[in-house]
Design brief:
Blueprint: E1 4-10, E2 24-29, E3 32-38, H1 42-48, E4 56-60, H2 66-69, H3 72-81, E5 88-93, H4 96-107, E6 115-120, E7 127-130, E8 134-140, E9 148-154, E10 160-161, H5 163-168, H6 176-180, E11 185-186, E12 192-193, H7 195-198, E13 199-200, E14 207-211, E15 229-233, H8 241-247, H9 252-262, E16 267-270, H10 280-289, E17 293-295, E18 301-303
Parallel strand pairs: 3-4, 4-5, 5-6, 14-15, 15-16, 16-17
Antiparallel strand pairs: 1-2, 1-18, 2-3, 7-8, 8-9, 9-14, 10-13, 11-12
Helix pairs in contact: 9-10
Length: about 300
C-alpha cells in the first residue's frame, strides 16, 4: 500500500513540559509531508523524527493560540537558511495575515521563496486542499477563538493489474493505465475482456481526522463517519467536565463518545494537561466507552 502515516511531534496542552512538546504532527501521504499545527520545538522534533524539511509544502494550523503556532516564524526562517525556493502554503483561521505577515516581513527578510497565507472560515466545512492523492477538509470546532480541525481523505487508488492475465492476452503496455482505472479491453477479434478479469480491486482508501482544541461537538459525527483514525483532544479526565466546559476543551469521556458516535476505527487522544503525570489514567477512562483507543506520544508513528 502507498504510505499514509501520522507522526506525533507534540501532544501536550498549553504548557511545554519535560514530558511533552505542544501540538504538532506530520501527516505523510505518499512522501508528501503535511504539517498540522506548528508549536515551539517543532524543528527539533522534525529532526528527531528524521523527517525531511524540504518535503513540507503545506502547514495547517487549527487556531492561533500560541501553543499551536509559535514555531511558525522560526521554521520559515530555517527554510530560508536551508535554501528553499518552492512556495510554502500556510492555512489558518483569521487573523492569520494580520498577525503573521508583519513578523515574516521583519524576521524573514530576503526569503528566496514565497509564503502564501490562506485564511480559513472555521464556521463551515470546506475542502481547502486537493491534489491527485488527497483532499483536506476543514472540521468546524468549538473553542474560545476561531478553530478548525482537518480531515485527510485519500483518493481512490488504481486497481491492481494481474500481470499473468495481461501477458496471456498480449495486451500492450500503453493500455495498462486505462485498465488500472477500470477500463475493459477489447481484443482484435472484438471480444471484450472485463476489467474484473484483468485486475484485482484497489487497496481501500484511508482517512485521518485531527480535532484539537474543542468542546464536545457531536454534530461533527456525520462528517467523521467511519474515519480510520480520529485524533481528538482529551485535555482533562472526566471528573473535570466543568473545567473543560469553561476552557472550551474536552474530557476523556467526551473524546471517546465522539469516536463512538463517528464509528471511528481507532481513537488517538492527546493535548494532555500538564497536571497529569500518567496518561494511562486518561487512556483507561477512554477505553470505558471506546476500547480501541491509543495515546499520542512524541515521535510515535502510526501507519494507516
Amino acid at each position: 500500500m502507498e504510505k499514509f502515516e501520522i507522526t506525533i511531534l507534540g501532544c501536550g496542552a498549553a504548557l511545554p513540559t519535560p514530558h511533552h512538546f505542544c501540538s504538532s504532527q506530520i501527516v505523510n501521504i505518499r512522501e508528501k509531508l503535511f504539517l498540522v499545527d506548528c508549536a515551539e520545538g517543532v524543528q527539533m522534533q522534525l529532526r528527531r523524527s528524521r523527517l525531511k524539511f524540504s518535503n513540507i509544502n503545506n502547514i495547517f494550523i487549527s487556531h492561533l493560540h500560541g501553543d499551536h503556532c509559535l514555531g511558525l516564524i522560526g521554521l520559515i526562517s530555517t527554510f530560508s537558511l536551508l535554501g528553499r525556493t518552492s512556495t510554502l502554503h500556510v492555512w489558518a483561521p483569521n487573523p492569520l495575515k494580520e498577525l503573521f505577515q508583519p513578523q515574516i516581513d521583519f524576521h524573514c527578510q530576503g526569503l528566496g521563496f514565497t509564503v502564501q497565507l490562506h485564511e480559513i472560515d472555521t464556521r463551515k466545512r470546506d475542502i481547502i486542499f486537493e491534489d491527485r492523492s488527497v483532499t483536506i477538509e476543514t472540521i468546524p470546532l468549538k473553542h474560545r477563538i476561531p478553530c478548525c480541525g482537518y480531515l485527510f481523505r485519500e483518493k481512490p487508488l488504481p486497481r491492481h493489474i494481474k500481470r499473468d492475465v495481461i501477458d496471456a492476452y498480449n495486451i500492450p503496455t500503453c493500455y495498462i493505465n486505462n485498465i488500472k482505472a477500470g477500463m475493459d479491453f477489447t481484443l482484435p477479434d472484438g471480444e471484450i475482456i472485463p476489467n474484473s478479469i484483468l485486475t484485482n480491486p484497489a487497496d481501500p482508501t484511508r482517512s485521518y481526522a485531527y480535532c484539537s482544541d474543542t468542546m464536545f461537538a457531536p454534530t461533527n459525527a456525520e462528517q467523521l463517519h467511519n474515519v480510520d483514525l480520529l485524533y481528538h483532544e482529551a485535555t482533562f479526565k472526566k471528573d473535570q467536565e466543568l473545567l473543560s466546559k469553561k476552557t472550551f476543551h474536552s474530557t476523556t469521556q467526551q473524546a471517546a463518545e465522539m469516536a463512538r458516535l463517528s464509528n471511528a476505527k481507532q481513537l488517538m487522544i492527546g493535548h494532555f494537561s500538564a497536571r497529569y503525570k500518567n496518561e494511562e489514567e486518561l487512556l483507561n477512562e477512554c477505553k470505558e466507552t471506546f476500547q480501541n483507543t491509543i495515546l499520542a506520544e512524541e515521535n510515535k508513528c502510526i501507519k494507516l
